[in-house]
Amino acid sequence: MSSLKFAEGLASGFSGHKTRRTWSSWRSASALGFALGLLAVGGNALLAAATNRLVAAPHGGTFFLAGVFLLLCGWILLTFVQRPERHRGAHILGGLTVAMVTVIFAAGYLMVLTEAVPSFSLGIYESANAITTTALSGVNVEALSAGSQIFRAGLQWTGGLATLLLGVAIIPTLGAGRDLADRVGQSGMLPLAPSGGQAARNILFIYLPLSLVLWLAFALTGMGVFDGLLLALSVVSTGGLAVPGEPFSNSVVQWIAVAGMSLSGVSLVVLWRLAQRKTKGLWRSMELRLYLLGTLGLALLLIYSAGDFGLDSVRHAAFIASSAISTTGFAVQPFGPWVPLVPVAILCATAIGGMSGSISGGFHLQPLVALVRLSRRELLRQLHPRIVLPLRLGGVPVDERTIERMVVLQFLFIATVIATSLAVALTGFSVVDALGMAVHATATGGPVRSIEGIPQDPGDWGVLSRLVLIPAMVAGRMAIFPVLVTATSVVAVAQQQFHFAGRRVRKKLRRS
Amino acid sequence: MTAYRLVPSPRWSSTTWHITGIALQFVALGMVFCSFLELNDGGSIVPLLAAGLFTLTVGTVARLSTETGKTGQAEIFAAVGGTWLIVSVFGALPYLLAATFARPGIGFPVEVADALFESISGFSCTGSTVFGAHNPIESQGAGILFYRQLTQWMGGMGIVVLVVSILPSLRASGLGLMSAEAPGTGSADRLAPRVTDTAQRFWKLYFVFTAAVAVALLFAGMSIFDAAAHALTTASTGGFSTRDTSIGYWDSATIEAVLIAGMIFGGANFTLHWRSFNKKRLVHFSDPEFRGYLFMLTAASAAVIWILFANGLTFGRSVRAAVFNVVTLGTSTGFGNATSTMSDGNFVLWAGGAQVILLILLVFGGCTGSTSGGVKVLRLQVGLAHARRSLRSFRHPRAVFPVFLGRRPIPDSLVERIAGFMVIYAMLVVGGTFVLAALGTDLLTAASGVISSLGNMGPALQNAGPTASFVDGYSAPARLVLAFMMLVGRLEIFPMVLMLVAPYRTLRHRLPRL
After folding, report:
1. Interface residue A489 vs chain B (CB under 8 A)
2. How many angstroms away from the CA of B443 is the closest CA of chain A?
3. Which residue(s) pair with A225 in the sheet?
4. Which region, left, alpha or beta, applies to residue B456 given φ > 0 means left and ψ of -120 to 50 means alpha?
5. Which residues contact B363 (CB under 8 A, 6 or more apart)?
6. What pLDDT digit, counting tens, does each position of A462-508 carry?
7. Which of A347, A371, A425 sits opposite B423 (nearest CB)?
8. Main-chain dihedrals φ then ψ at residue B67, nearest 5 degrees
9. Is A3 on the interface with B (CB under 8 A)?
């Protein structure tokens, strides 16, 4: 009987007929998230298998089998889920967190199977680095097969895309930051995100061509099609994982990377308007101006610190500055001495990151602008306690609930950094190193540098130190809220289930 | 009342100068008292006495030539901020006249900066010092040493609270002034219907508490002078000491235990102490903030003990080093129990995990309504409750969740105020670190220095630890930035930031438009 029911369910899942009860919102969202995670890893594994097949590298078969298996599992699960009429917002966020965690574990295990890393713990650290686009990898890229390299780069690219979808298409439709996500619609121009689906299409419309253009540009510099692809995927997703060889010794490659990283840190809304050729009033965006001024300021500081005002110095400075602000984090050596302000400025730039609605990590500039205005309002309120002063961004009043969430986001961001610093420091690091690692993990940037600017090699860190960074990376990449909402939802659901189970047991006891 | 009639009317209307005048008179009395201590110690009476007489003269002139004027919010901030700034400047006079910080190789501006730093560190109860190996504390006379301690004691309960307590005829809003100087949670902090009575009760309690600590320290083995001096800075959670190695000089567990009890008491809300005293039973544990405060100190102590023990110290030494330093930083006092630079109590040498815990304590401080600094435990609790509400509202978008502290719902206006405060605080920390780094300070020394100064803690990390001088860690301009941060932190940001609004408005009215 039960096998018949299962077969019926399977058939209805494949055919799309709803002969069974729909799943609860949280169960459906979690299952869909799990399926999406499997599909993402499976797709990248097939890409890796194809690459290994082309260059006759080992482990092509492993990648292929794993890819097919994961895609099959993901597809079956995707069709098996009986979706409810509507998923609740918190459960959608939970599903996304499940997807992220699934990718980390599945990709980590696959890395172990393909001998890219020696242990599962390092495997999940490396996969977390890739999917969260954090540049704190401890693997020697030269020792990896071509398939493993493209697998990591593909995961970065997927992580970047997921970030855009989350930031522009999903979170705004759930109410959080809705009035910040796409302010273009209010001025009568073509909006980027009129609905979730349209937003997803528009995001792909920008993200794919940008990746292709960068690939083409890198390939044309003579660095090779494969290396060009790796670098393009790394730059466009603000991933920052290393690519083989010394690609940045070529000045043209470096300038293209500067342009790519800078574009990746720009809000997708701005890029969308550029694509639509609606550039009127773009410069009025306070966030855009701050972003460009920040990059310029940091570059000038680096040049001043090095004391070398030549063109090479300008190029290196622009590269380090855009790498820090866009949270890409390519680990390049400093090109001159650093004054004490430089590490502080780079740490701040990485913590803040680029524009909101961009691929970059960090706290983002828009919330920072809002908080500065909030503090100004608070000062005015001290003088005039009964004053009613709406907060405006881009000339439009911001909802008080959004402001509340920004304040909470700041609180949670700092709390995440402090908690991660403590965890890292407990594994034997100094305060400065622990703080640097925590900030870079939460902002999904990198690399952690010494006071003199020398990038640290995460390969030298202990396994435990690396593992404690993973929660911060995941939380940072998902803008913190979704992870915490998921955690609290899980606790709430567990409490609920526990309560129901208790009630059932009590009922049974009463009957008996 | 009669004092006002001695001077012909009309007097200059200025709340700031009127209150500053009275505050200067108090400070001058302290200087004069300390000059006699200096004389008794065989030193020169001149610097302290001259500074005292000059300050008394200025204070008296300021008091008699002015009357309280408008008492709007801007004027209150100007009065409180201005009073603290001016009192701190005059408080630096004894150091300058006694050439306390004169040393070869530095110019007069640096000497002035050092004197100002020490004075502001004193009045704001920070406890950071520019004394050090180059200029030992113990080379100073008893007068200067006691004066340092006295500045912290005066600043502990608040100079303006002191003024309000003796001035029933003050037309200015006493509650507004008190709130601006020592913000609490509102009407709950009033101990009596009349503000003057409230201020007097606070000072009485403070005085009795100080005397009790002094007696306990005397019995624990300190001399009368040291006991009195350290009681002043324990009650005020200031942290100045009469010895170069601070409490480490005595190397006594009994003295440290007395000080720990005193610091915990000083870091708790004085309203609770008064109520307990009145009701003859302990009401502290009914207060969620006090419970959070004790929990924070206990948890931090346990964690640091574990870390130190795991790093090779014996259990007893770990407990002693950890509990003392956690309490001294958790209450924003800033005493040190390191006997030398390589001893257990020098937390700069501790493992990174322990230092991160201390850094967190530097931010939080004690309870509202206490003499301690920092963000305060109450704000942390409200921040957490606020974050929890925000996360719950994600799950239930249409539900209305009030923020609770214990079982008491907190009005949204207070939540907003606290959120605004924390945003500004975070920005000051980041901005201050940036400025200090620009002045040549390394990241950890800069960040911990700013956090320590804003929280009125005393020692910082890296180059400004418990056995180091701030001269070693920061340049003279950086020390001035830190001194400003101390005042900003002591007055909980707003009075110092907004003190120029009222003078600006007055000037704008009086100056002809171009």
Report:
1. yes
2. 6
3. none
4. left
5. B374, B375, B451, B455
6. 999 999 999 999 999 988 888 888 888 788 878 888 888 899 999 99
7. A371
8. -140, 160
9. no
Question: Which of B356, B400, B491 is most worth mutating to test chain A (most A CB atoms within 10 A of its CB)?
Answer: B356
Please tell me which residue of chain A has the smallest CA distance to B447. Answer: A344
Q: Does B500 touch chain A (CB under 8 A)?
A: no
- Return the pLDDT at B280: 86
Q: Please, which residues 344-383 of chain A have a Cβ atom closer than 8 Å to chain B?
A: 344-345, 347-348, 371-372, 374-375, 377-379, 381-383
B248 secondary structure, DSSP code: G
Note the maximum CA span of chain A.
88
User: Measured between CB atoms, which of A381, A412, A425 is closest to B355?
Assistant: A425
Tokens of B342: 């390589």
Q: What is the average pLDDT across B346-370?
A: 89
For chain A, count helices (H), then strands (E). 20, 2
B356/A431 CB distance under 8 A: yes
Which of B308, B423, B462 to probe by mutation at the A interface, max A CB count within 10 Å? B423
Confidence of residue B175 (pLDDT cuts 50, 70, 90): low
Q: Do A340 and B397 touch (CB under 8 A)?
A: no
Evaluate whether B288 touches B405 at the Cβ level (below 8 Å). Answer: yes
Cβ of A381 within 8 Å of Cβ of B420? The answer is yes
Mean pLDDT, rounded, of chain B = 87
Asked if the Cβ–Cβ distance from A485 to B395 is below 8 Å, we say yes
DSSP helix/strand/coil, B405 = strand
- The upper half-sphere exposure of residue B267, i.e. CA atoms within 13 Å in the direction of its Cβ, equals 39
At residue B513, the pLDDT reads 60
Q: Do A411 and B383 touch (CB under 8 A)?
A: yes
Q: What is the Cα B66 distance to its own chain's centre?
A: 29
Query: How many C-alpha atoms does B342 have within 13 Å on its Cβ side?
Result: 0
Residue with tokens 């009795």: B208
Backbone angles phi, psi at A330, to 5 degrees: -70, 135
ipTM of the complex: 0.86
Structure-token match 């917002």, residue found: A89
Collapse the DSSP code of B256 into the 3-class scheme (helix H, G, I; strand E, B; otherwise coil) and give the result: helix
pLDDT the model gives residue B466: 81
Residue range B380-412, pLDDT digits in tens? 998 889 888 888 887 787 888 888 887 888 888
Distance to chain A for B23, nearest Cα, Å = 24
CA dihedral A256, A262, A263, A264 (to 10 degrees): 110
- Euclidean distance between CA atoms A139 and A156, whole angstroms: 15
What is residue B186's predicted lDDT score, i.e. its pLDDT? 45
pLDDT of residue A411 exceeding 50, the answer is yes
Question: From the CB of residue A490, how many other CB atoms can be counted at a distance below 10 Å?
Answer: 15
Whether the per-residue pLDDT at B244 is higher than 70: the answer is yes
For residue A509, give how far its alpha carbon lies from the nearest alpha carbon of chain B (Å).
33
